[in-house]
Design a protein that fits this description.
Blueprint lengths: L1 H19 L5 H8 L1 H8 L2 H19 L5 E2 L3 H18 L3 E8 L3 E8 L2 E7 L12 H17 L15 E4 L6 E5 L10 E7 L1
Antiparallel strand pairs: 1-5, 2-3, 2-7, 3-4, 5-6, 6-7
Helix pairs in contact: 1-3, 4-5, 5-6
Length: 199
């Protein structure tokens, strides 16, 4: 299917190039034969390959629509993380509002336009708390925690034991982490929550 789509783009491009030429049929045929082929192969094929990888990457995420990943399945958490990050990088809205903060305590609200923060407002309750203040920081923190468990599997406690834990969920459309914490059965605390609203 992806090959057919790429071929269709190539055919449309060649036909468009040929129809836009104002000279005779013999002259456009020669320039269209070499430069457009190069352009067709470089331009549509490269993005198609990238989007093919990204489309393939989002399929596992869609297979676990509301899945929560934790230290009990570090390999599954890493696979979901990689798919989610690729999805976010491919589908990050140019303009969006981000609410990120501590569940039941407070949030920082950011307005992002063209990839730049244009306004920020933080609830006084979380003004002095340390938590990720962007999706990139949230990905970085989750990545560090997963990497710690990958490096030392002995850190994984028995299911009901205290110790090192993590819980991670992703938004299934945009891929960003929408819930993350390091809470186990012996911990009191709150999760980091992120909500992205495209504008």
């Amino acid at each position: 299917m992806r090959l057919k789509l790429t071929c269709l783009f190539a055919l449309v491009f060649v036909l468009f190039t040929a129809s836009c030429s104002s000279d005779g049929a013999a002259e456009p045929a020669q320039p269209a034969a070499q430069p457009p082929e190069e352009t067709v192969q470089k331009s549509p094929v490269e993005p198609a390959e990238e989007s093919t990888d990204q489309t393939a990457s989002t399929e596992p995420l869609a297979a676990v629509p509301d899945g929560e990943f934790n230290e009990r399945d570090v390999a599954g958490a890493r696979a979901a993380f990689d798919v989610a990050r690729a999805t976010w990088e491919a589908d990050t809205p140019a303009n969006y509002e981000l609410q990120i903060g501590l569940e039941t305590v407070g949030f920082t609200r950011l307005v992002i336009e063209g990839g730049v923060v244009v306004s920020e407002d933080t609830d006084p309750a979380v003004q002095d708390w340390t938590f990720p203040r962007s999706i990139e920081e949230l990905f970085a923190e989750a990545d560090t925690v997963i990497a710690t468990f990958e490096a030392d599997p002995s850190l994984v406690p028995a299911p009901a034991d205290c110790g090192a834990h993590f819980n991670l969920r992703f938004d299934t459309e945009l891929g960003y982490p929408n819930r993350f914490d390091q809470l186990g059965p012996c911990d009191d605390g709150v999760s980091i929550i992120a909500i992205v609203t495209p504008n």
